[in-house]
Amino acid sequence: MSALDNLPPLREVIARHDLRAKKQLGQNFLLDLNLTAKIARAAGDLGQCDVIEVGPGPGGLTRGLLAEGARHVLAIEKDARALPALAEIAAAYPGRLTVINGDALEIDPLAHVAPPVRIVANLPYNVGTELLIRWLTPPAWPPFWQSLTLMFQKEVAERITARPGGKAYGRLAVLAQWRADARIVMTLPPEAFVPAPKVHSSVVHLTALPQPRYPADAKVLSSVVAAGFNQRRKMLRASLKSIHPEIERLLEECGIPPTARAEEVGLEQFCTLARAVQAARQG
User: Fold this and answer.
1) In what order do the strands lie in the sheet with 145-153?
2) Cβ neighbours of residue 71 under 8 Å, at least 6 residues apart?
3) What letter does residue 33 receive in the DSSP assignment?
4) Residue of 77, 95, 110, 138 with fewest CB within 10 Å of its CB?
5) Whether domain 2-208 has CATH 3.40.50.150
6) Cβ(17)–Cβ(81) below 8 Å
7) What CATH code would you report for 218-282?
8) Residue ranges per domain, the chain?
9) Per-residue pLDDT for 167 more than 90?
10) For residues 200-206, average pLDDT
11) Cα–Cα distance between 178 and 267 in angstroms, integer?
12) DSSP conformational letter for 210
């Protein structure tokens, strides 16, 4: 790709701008431009989309997104050291890359993008899960984004795509799968990154559903799921005691054994229970 966009190899960019990864920023740079292009392609057809990228660092994935035809890329980068390298990419793709220096947790990107919007990022490990939860729990649905193509630690990716019955299944799986189709599209070994993390990484692709998979009030569902999984070793009649005083009766009415544990309860059952809890509170 360096030949395609006439930009230097990433190792050279990192050396020239002294962009050694900082642990406190959760940085692990992916330097293989073939892999960054592959991640960009996993996001789907970008030709008619604006793309939000969080934590571009030296810009390997940014280059992939632009080379794969993204209409416009908004790159949000907290580390000011990376700005000169990103400015070089912006110069190579006039009018197609906007860079904002700031914290993605504090920036509203909507003033800088136009729909349709996709989010594609090798997320910094220390903010990845928090950003995902924010994107999955907007005030209204459908959200501003069509899809999320995100790199996480492999363990987190498995939690997002987990099915009931296993240790990986929890609040993150319910939140993600209630409103999106989620699948792991790629797994990368530690040595693909600089510096090499201690764990494998995986790319998860989530496509927003037009409406949630099953009806439920978002806040009630979130509180039920959080209570259940915060004490996942307990039976539901105990872990959900704070949700409603007659929780055992509500569980039985929903066809959920009060002696079950949260990891045994599927998404549809959680939604049924959330509706029952809401009705009982209102009644």
Assistant:
1) 97-101, 72-77, 50-54, 117-122, 145-153, 201-208, 180-188
2) 46, 47, 48, 49, 50, 51, 96
3) H
4) 95
5) yes
6) yes
7) 1.10.8.100
8) 2-208, 218-282
9) yes
10) 97
11) 7
12) S
